[in-house]
């Protein structure tokens, strides 16, 4: 009896083991599956919206911004949702996509910071025109005698060529 019970439990355990090892079948791609590069771009932009909304919750209408992203890529929200569900089903590939997106964003951030730094360098070498001294309030370089002589020569000048 005990041997029969051990065999039946062992058999049942082996069946569960094989059923568990079979793995979860990958879902079929949806009919409206977005190409992976488009999916990645939309995913990044939607993450930007979520990040901005969490930083400034009162100033952002998330739904209207999401709609603008979908319009930009000429896709439906349902197409993104079904594509996201499909791409997310392969966990390792999704992790790789997220790591690639993170690396891309870090690269863009470095480029932007380099541009900001170069612009600061340019503007630090060229003072603002408003900050320059007013040339009209500067002391006149002509002596009073020179000023009178120049004024007299202009007055006495024959403008008609006679």
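^ structure tokens above, recovered residues below v
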């Amino acid at each position: 009896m005990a041997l029969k019970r051990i065999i039946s439990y062992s058999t049942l355990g082996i069946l569960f083991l094989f059923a568990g090892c079979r793995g979860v079948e990958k879902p079929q791609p949806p009919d409206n599956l977005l190409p992976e590069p488009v999916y990645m771009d939309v995913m990044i932009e939607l993450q930007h919206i979520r990040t901005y909304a969490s930083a400034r919750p009162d100033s952002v209408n998330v739904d209207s911004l999401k709609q603008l992203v979908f319009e930009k890529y000429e896709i439906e929200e349902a197409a993104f949702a079904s594509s996201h569900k499909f791409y997310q089903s392969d966990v390792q590939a999704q992790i790789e996509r997220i790591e690639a997106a993170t690396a891309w964003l870090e690269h863009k951030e470095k480029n932007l910071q380099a541009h900001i730094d170069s612009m600061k360098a340019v503007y630090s070498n060229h003072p603002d025109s408003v900050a320059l001294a007013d040339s009209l309030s500067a002391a006149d370089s002509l002596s009073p005698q020179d000023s009178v002589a120049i004024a007299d020569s202009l007055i006495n000048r024959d403008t008609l060529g006679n």
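The mean pLDDT is 78.
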